Amino acid sequence: MEVDRTDGRTPNQLRPLACSRRILHRAHGSASWSQGDTKVLVAVYGPKAGTKKNENPEKACIEVVWKPKTGQIGKPEREFEMILKRTLQSICVLTVNPNTTTSVIVQVVHDDGALLPCAINAACAALVDAGIPMKHLAVAIFCCLAESGYVILDPTKLEEQKMKAFVYLVFPNSILSVLPEVSSTMKGEPMEHGIITSVTHGAMSENDYFLCLERGRAASAKLSDFLRRSLQSKVPGDSSKAG
Amino acid sequence: MHKKRCVVGHFEVCSCVTAFANFSPRSCLAATLIFSFLLSLLDLRSPNDLVIPANYSARSRSRSRSHFVVGVAKTPSKLMLMEASTSPATFVDKIVVPGDVVLDLSTFTNETIKLGGGLRQDPDAISVMKAGKLKFSKPNKYWVESSQRRYVPCMEETVLGIVVDCKADNFLVDIKGPAIAFLPVLAFEGGTRRNIPKFEVGALVYVRVVKANPGMNPELSCTDAYGKAAEFGLLKDGYMFETSTGLSRIFLVSHYATMNVIEPCSSRLLSSPTCPVLEELGKQLSFEIAVGLNGRVWVNADSPSTVVVVSNAIMNSEPLSGVQQKIMVEKLLQRIK
User: Fold this and answer.
1) What is the C-alpha to C-alpha distance for residues A171 and A195, in angstroms, rounded to an integer?
2) ipTM higher than threshold 0.95
3) What gap in Å lies between CA A201 and CA A80, rounded to an integer?
4) CA dist A158 to A18, A76, A108, A112, B171, Å?
5) Comparing C-alpha atoms, which of B59, B23, B255 is closest to residue B155?
6) Which CATH superfamily groups domain A17-231?
7) Is there a contact between A164 and A227 (Cβ–Cβ < 8 Å)?
8) Element (H, E) at B328
């Protein structure tokens, strides 16, 4: 079903991506990620000695602080912090530096739709910049479902407000491997088809959810390529852009 | 036809090999060898692709540097191993990101592989933990080279630490690592309970890492392996600044390099080959420098302007190549005159 988006994109098209690393001089790792007009800046400090009280001292601990562009910190910010913390905990190797804390501070520079996926992508790039050991990278996608049943990816804020339901999906990135295709799969599905995080808002049917998953997976391959290219640049201060 | 994995390893022949996969490993190997020989005769593959290694060694057990983790392949086999044309060669010297699988352990049988920083061992393969360039050093060392702001402590590395606290038995020293390091009070040349050095909080010390076990606080020492002072200890005056670990590794090429006193027109650097920036600067200026592998650099000279020039030259030299560094330093020195 053809749909008209205000900026002329097709339903599966993402906004222009831009990523730059090592932009903050004092932070141990930093990255800024922008999708269209949505821009998020993430700083990583750590690993530093000591964990918080209720955390397991045999593992590294990740602490997330979310700073909105304006206003006070309230429940939505706490929810974002929790989702980001759980996602980052599942991609980092926590046993390498036990009894340490890594702080991830997220600053929203501008919010124009798809804020949390943008923040997850930026946090992943910042963790790579800081040299925190990770199992694999994560790419995040925002899919939303309109009243009439069509799915669009990466909406702007105006488009987001008109939607019936939406879902944030985080997938592992596509990896290069020397192993032949067969052995890097689990139960017949490639590794890239795993889901790290899935958060839904609103009501959607199962079929709609699976449709969103498919679209999200296809787009995550493009995001994964872009992330790999931006990490390839030798000079860390370089920024890379993709239309 | 899809490629099946056989014990022998991965070869870039077409998938006809799968027909042989049900045979014993020896006949499979023989068949593959004959097949690739035939292919080379037909000029379909260059002769270099014939998979006979020149220097295969069954067991290489050299003494390892302690920061390499030794990984041993789990599947024993009686076959002579053939170096696969795909596996390590494809990723060595390329930039890899976390998650990439770079080595297939089933192709290395009865061998000791040494893994450096940035790599970890899954049950069957070696995968990457940090983004960087994958490096390989003969006979069997793999590691990922990357440049970070923080430091991962390793044995026998010289670092610059800042004293944070003094306890009864140790000084607590911050070396930009995940845990705070201990410098025993007696780890000095001729150190006894009666002549314990007095370091204030905030003092800069040039030390050597003695023990660096994961999860534990690293231990330092102000003597070299023979017990002599060898330029370790407190650094007075001068100026300290922080860079990334990659830049300091470029400066310290031999890991036993100590402090260098550089005089004009005669660089008496103890390590060679030297960094182009330091060489060029040393031709005109006279200064003292101490580089720690944790990214801290200390510079001391007679006049503050020399210190400023040297520090700026070093800080600006990270993204430049050797020739560009020389040009940058020449321009800088000309502007002062």
Assistant:
1) 5
2) no
3) 13
4) 21, 19, 18, 8, 59
5) B255
6) GHMP Kinase, N-terminal domain (3.30.230.70)
7) no
8) helix B322-336
If one counts every other C-beta atom within 10 angstroms of the C-beta of residue B284, the result is 16
The candidate with the shortest Cα–Cα distance to B203, out of B228, B177, B236, is B236
The size of chain A, in residues, is 243
- Residue to mutate among A24, A129, A178, A239, with most B CBs inside 10 A, is A178
Bridge partner residues of A182 (DSSP): none
Cα–Cα nearest to B84, from B2, B130, B17, B1: B17
Closest residue of chain B to A228, computed from CA coordinates: B97
CA distance A223 to A122: 12
Q: Tell me which residue in B100, B129, B179 faces A176 most closely, judged by beta carbons.
A: B100
Chain A CB contacts of B218 below 8 Å: none
Contact assessment for residue B271 and residue B137, using Cβ atoms and an 8 Å cutoff? no
Nearest CA in chain B to A26: B149
Query: Pairing mode, if any, of strands A185-186 and A189-190?
Result: antiparallel
- C-alpha–C-alpha distance, residues A184 and B88, integer Å: 17
Of B104, B118, B147, the CB nearest to A179: B104
B302 φ, ψ (degrees, to nearest 5): -70, -45
Q: Is A61 on the interface with B (CB under 8 A)?
A: no
- The pLDDT tens digits along chain B (337 residues) read 444 433 333 333 333 333 443 445 555 455 545 554 554 455 444 444 333 333 333 333 333 343 455 544 444 333 333 333 344 457 888 899 998 888 888 777 788 888 888 899 888 888 899 999 998 888 888 999 888 999 999 999 999 999 999 999 999 999 999 999 999 999 999 889 999 999 999 999 999 999 999 889 999 999 988 888 888 999 999 999 999 898 888 777 533 333 444 443 232 333 335 678 888 888 888 999 999 999 999 999 999 999 999 999 988 888 777 788 888 888 888 888 7
Residues in chain B: 337
What digits encode the pLDDT tens for the residues B187-241?
999 889 999 999 999 999 999 999 999 889 999 999 988 888 888 999 999 999 9
H/E stretch holding B251: helix B245-251
* Residue of B149, B173, B242, B249 to mutate for A, most A C-beta atoms under 10 A: B149
Q: Is A73 in a helix, a strand, or coil?
A: coil
> Does the beta carbon of A177 lie under 8 angstroms from any beta carbon of chain B?
yes
| DSSP 3-state of B65 | coil
Between vectors from CA B243 to CA B240 and to CA B247, what angle results, nearest 5°? 120
